[in-house]
């Protein structure tokens, strides 16, 4: 049941991100990129197997059963991806504000279409 909920969540984030990415306004594109990065992060965590109440590393020296432990590599990758996506989003917001100040519109192509 947990896998189905996770798969639906990843699909919802990815579909919403793609829909917003194709919108004509710059702010919607930035939010779409953020949603896509959330979907990818959830996917990476899911590929590292979902374990609850399991330690991330071996407790004693010697051989251990890897099935009893959570994989720390996907967690480290996702943590790094979160930091990078936060910095990228901040940079894109600054570029958005500068472009809006220069062009007077927040359309991706810089042209406002008449209604």
UniProtKB/TrEMBL annotation:
- Cellular component annotations (GO), alphabetically ordered: plasma membrane
Its protein name is: Multicomponent K+:H+ antiporter subunit C
Locations listed in the record: Cell membrane
- InterPro entries according to UniProt: CPA3_antiporter_subunitC, NUOK/Mnh_C1-like
The main location class comes to membrane
PANTHER family from the UniProt entry: ANTIPORTER SUBUNIT MNHC2-RELATED
Does the UniProt entry include the keyword Repeat?
no
- Record keywords, A-Z: Cell membrane, Membrane, Transmembrane, Transmembrane helix
The UniProt similarity line reads: Belongs to the CPA3 antiporters (TC 2.A.63) subunit C family.
Q: Give the transmembrane region(s).
A: 6-22, 29-50, 76-99
- tRNA processing is among the record's keywords: no
Q: How does it sit in the membrane?
A: Multi-pass membrane protein
């Amino acid at each position: 049941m947990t896998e189905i909920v996770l798969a639906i969540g990843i699909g919802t984030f990815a579909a919403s991100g793609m829909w917003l990415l194709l919108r004509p306004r710059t702010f919607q594109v930035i939010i779409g990129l953020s949603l896509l990065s959330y979907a990818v992060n959830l996917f990476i965590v899911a590929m590292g197997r979902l374990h609850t109440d399991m330690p991330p590393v071996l407790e004693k020296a010697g051989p251990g059963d890897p099935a009893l432990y959570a994989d720390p590599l996907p967690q480290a990758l996702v943590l790094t991806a979160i930091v990078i996506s936060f910095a990228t989003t901040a940079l894109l917001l600054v570029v958005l504000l500068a472009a809006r100040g220069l062009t007077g519109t927040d359309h991706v192509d810089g042209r406002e279409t008449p209604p």
